[in-house]
Amino acid sequence: MNTAARRLLRTGPVRNVEALSRVSPSLVEALCTLKSGEQSMVRVAEDDRVLQLSVHVSRFRLRDEAHALASIQDLRNELEEKEMEAWQRLTRVLTHEIMNSVAPISSLASTARRLLSQAPAPNDADGTPAPHELSEIASDAQEAVQTIERRSKGLISLVDSYRSFTKIPHPTFTIIRVEELFGGVRQLLRVQISEHALDLHIDIPPPDLQITADPELIEQVLINLVLNAIHAVQDQPAPRIELRAHLDRRSQPVLAVTDNGPGIPPDVQERIFVSFFTTKEDGSGIGLSLSRQIMRLHGGTLAVRSSVDASSGTTFTLRF
Ligand code: ADP
After folding, report:
1. Exposed e or buried b for every residue in 295-311, given b needs 16+ CB within 10 A?
2. Which tens digits make up the pLDDT trace of 300-311?
3. pLDDT tens across 170-185, in order?
4. What is the position in ligand 1's atom list of the atom closest to the CA of 259?
5. Pair 85, 207 in one domain
6. Domain ends where: 15, 39, 74?
7. Would you give the DSSP letter of residue 128?
8. Which long-range contacts link 13-18 to residues 24+ away (Cβ below 8 Å)?
9. Where are the alpha helices (DSSP H) in 51-202?
10. Residues 226 and 233 sit within 8 Å (Cβ to Cβ)
């Protein structure tokens, strides 16, 4: 097995195909039973990730010995990326069209409201309707125009929030101290943290840990994750969020955001990274898909581990 396959399946060198049953029995079955030239899809669900493997096997004889050459490809990334691209294209067109229509509505509504407020007091001596009628009509019109103005402003800010989804800049890589990164996030969210009286704990062993990444983009990912965590813990008796960073077995930096919220049910967990999926009344469903895309642009991953019954809460893990 080559390095890419070992990394993909998170395994060391293996002696035979059966040894892979630890990763997935259905992968072993596919490798053993696929006929030459056949292909099959194998889904591997692990604690913190799901792989969608396309397995292809070629069988041949060489010097009277039977050989099989298998190629394994994780299509999940590619599928997700294609889906994300399609959503981004659609969102770009929609936001552009909506903005073009709503911006003039909003500004005309504000002009109309100003004009109405300057309307001269009616004079009933020259046959105009009685003062109370006109002022009522004017105030009704003013109220209507005010509603149009308010709603169109709301629509503009909603559409604006989708813009970040369509424009993810290419990362500019620099070396960042994780301590500074976490400190910056705590500083930016200090109002929400104190409002919810929650305990935000930062743990970085080793404290001088550094990562090579785009500081603004990774800060955006962390803000998305911490805001979701704040939302998740808001009804907990002792709300707690932990930001942790360490080096994994391969000496790769790992950042994690953990909350002691109610956890995410498995059927919801399947969909949380899908663009526009949300369970919140006022949610946009772009935070996690945007964050995963940012991690992909860093050559990394964003994964979740959550349980609803063990009350161990939810952990989002960023691997670089
Ligand atoms: P939004 O926050 O607008 O809903 P996201 O993409 O950030 O969009 O999140 C998608 C969904 O994932 C949320 O609606 C929620 O159901 C779930 N989710 C995300 N983070 C957590 C968390 N820490 N605990 C529980 N559920 C979460």
Report:
1. bbebebebbbbbbbeee
2. 989 999 988 866
3. 999 999 999 999 999 9
4. 23
5. no
6. 74
7. P
8. none
9. 76-118, 131-166, 178-188, 190-195
10. no
